[in-house]
Amino acid sequence: MAADALIEVENLSVLFPLYHGSSRSLKKMVVAAASGRLAQDQQQRVVVRALSNIDLRLSSGDRLGLVGSNGAGKTTLLRVLAGIYEPVLGRLHVKGSLNALLDPNLGMNVELSGRENILLRGLYNGLSKPALARLEQDVAEFAELSDFLDLPVRIYSAGMVVRLGFALATAIKPQILLMDEWFLAGDAAFLDKARQRLEEMVRGADILVLSSHQTEIVRSWCSRVLWLDQGKIVADGPANDVLNQYLGHVPGTPIPALV
Amino acid sequence: MGYAPRGMNSVAITLAPATELNLRATTTPAGRNRWAMADIASGARLWRLAMALGWLDIRLRYRGSMLGPFWLTISTGVMVAALGLLYSTLFKIDLHDYLPFLALSQVLWGFLAALVSEACSTFTDAESVIRSVRMPFFVFAMRTLIRNTIALGHNIVVIVVVFAIFAVWPHWQSLLAIPGLLLWAVDALFLTLMLGAFCARFRDIQPIVNSVMQIAFFITPVIWKPTQLSPATIEKLALNPFFDLLEIVRGPILGTDIAPSTWAGAIGYSVVLCAISWAFFVRARSRITFWV
Lengths: 259, 292
Description:
The structure holds two protein chains of two kinds. Chain A has helices spanning 26-34, 38-44, 74-81, 114-124, 129-143, 158-169, 192-204, 215-221, 239-248, and strands at residues 6-17, 47-59, 63-67, 89-95, 98-101, 172-173, 176-179, 207-211, 224-229, 232-238. Chain A is an alpha/beta fold. Chain A has a domain at 104-172. In chain A, the strands form two sheets. Chain A has a six-stranded mixed beta sheet, sandwiched between helices. Chain A has a three-stranded antiparallel beta sheet with strand order 2-1-4, covered by helices on one side. In chain A, strand 7, helix 7 and strand 8 (207-211) form a beta-alpha-beta unit. The longest helix of chain A is centred in the middle third of the chain and has 15 residues, at 129-143. The radius of gyration of chain A is 21 Å and the shape is globular. Chain B is an all-alpha fold. Chain B has one domain (32-279). Chain B has helices at residues 29-45, 47-61, 70-90, 95-119, 127-130, 137-165, 177-201, 205-219, 231-237, 241-254, 260-284, 288-291; strands at residues 14-15, 20-24. In chain B, helix 4 packs antiparallel against helix 8 (205-219) and helix 6 packs across helix 7 (177-201). The longest helix of chain B has 29 residues, at 137-165. Chain B is globular and about 65 Å long. Classes of the chains: A alpha/beta, B mainly alpha. At the A-B interface, strand 1, helix 1, strand 4, strand 5 and helix 4 of A face strand 1, strand 2, helix 2, helix 5 and helix 12 of B.
């Protein structure tokens, strides 16, 4: 068994430069530099502080839920924990294997066959050859593709595509599982089998970080909740306490100071 | 280990490989340099992924066509035949002498031009992956190189056919092209890292790069022979980086001697290219995700 999983975030901030029209153009930048306006342009560049001064420590056994309105920084925080966005300020330390379920179609190419898509996903995850064979067997069996495995995903029925995507996403068991809410979107329609597989994966993970608007799922799966607003931590504590505060809060009103 | 205790449904449990990530916002050049080197090292370990992506790119490009990637071979062959007939008449050169030269030059130049042009979209094409999983950027650089190397492999058929028709046989000296090709590969990886990042930031670079390559095609002896120039002009050719780089691969295969100054030029230009590319990549690496 691998060593205990750990996530440490210290005083972390992420700034998003917003590029639009003219700042994407080299020509405009050169003209601006030539006419001495560059310094001013640099100042005026729109920067969004997507996360500011986040402190967080998670160890094995923690189940963290992220709540907050749209644009609060939930997905950005997941991307930071996955190492996709590197911090501009502060420090991030993640120990343990990690799987981030952020994009349902990661690496999925509809022109490729099911088998090739499985292989590609395995390679993205740096799996060894024997592990690739096991992955293929597992995914093919769960997604019930049988004869379609060697046909392009383009001709699959909608149900088959969903099964393949789901099977792929849940095939690789990490110590740290980061999940965005898309994953629970079709929750009601999930087959029992799918729900079982997902719950098995969640139980198997040492650390879960789940971002969702569906507070009931957060309440049943998470023991701790982090409430984010405009990139800042509003509250961090036991799931029920924070969720009650979150649900009691009327959007648009000032957020009460919390302990 | 045939039986996995947990999970009644799954036949096998695939565990994600263990990793550790210790990111600290770095602004020191040494810190950034360390991260860029780590990117290369971890990317190189994923060479099987890069190979698979490169192959799939080629297969997808020619999906549904009966000849598949051999369309590359055919279009190059037709191009070489047409240009060969046209220019041997225009320049009044013997076809036996000219066509092998043209076939080789055209294929090699096609590789360089496509590589430089595709380097620009290396990262922007991989946007969805870059934004949903932490992946070394070097993987995408390798993918671009591998994809173009596979295309080159298909085009080599044209060279072989033309050489066979005109009875030009390879000799031991041709092996000297190998170090040249290796230098190309190194240059290509560095250039891809730089152009990929630069074009992600500034979206108007790719057309500029394509025009530069178009001009380079005319001022470099690709379809014309250096010997058609006056001796004074030949010396100036060394100032063209593309000439030196092209010649270190083309010369040995055609059996022409390469001046040491050509090799020196090729290595010198490569060092400058790699140094600039590395400096840019080190600075830009952590920002690429925000740019794509």
